Amino acid sequence: MTNRILRTVAAGTMLTVGTSSLGCGYILHPERRGIQAGTIDTATMVMDLLWLLAGIVPGVVALIVDFSSGAIYSSGRRAELHLGPDGRLVLQVPHASRPGRVELRLVTATHEVVARKTALVGPGPSRNETIDLAPAPGSRGPLILEIETDRGQIARAAVAARL
To answer: 20 to 30 A Cα–Cα from 42, which one of 3, 17, 98, 123?
Structure first.
């Protein structure tokens, strides 16, 4: 009797783990991550909605992960940063829920910093401030925008330009 219960639990666990990886576009379609909008992939949407049968939490989590990562979209546009014709990257100062400082850097693939600016952020009305980042002369290779908060958190985004 105990052996039968153990086998049933093991089979149920394997089935759950196996099907959970099939029900998430984030795992099935990593090449789609970063798409902001577009045509929703019906198969991925149906798999995410089927998780609602297992419970409200798994279904909602699957939908949130796929929509926020962009993996649910089969086509659409990606968020990209581009250097202007003058070789500069102009960004609007980000807003934050609490006052703080952010450092914006343009770095090469070898982690060489070619431009750096610091901005104060915080709550309040938009002032439409911009930051102008210009790579140092003689910089080579693809560029990456790094944003570091005063807490040490770093976000990175590729810049669609080669020097």
So the answer is: 17
Q: Does residue 63 sit within a domain?
A: yes
Mean pLDDT of residues grouped by 10 in the chain (163 residues)? 80 62 67 74 81 78 82 64 72 76 85 86 72 78 82 76 48
Beta-bridge partners for 158: 144
DSSP state of 81: B
CATH number at residue 119: 2.60.40.2550
Question: Parallel, antiparallel, or unpaired: how do β-strands 73-78 and 35-40 relate?
Answer: antiparallel
Task: Give the CB-side neighbour count of residue 133, counting CA atoms within 13 A.
Answer: 27
Where do we find the tokens 């609007």? 92
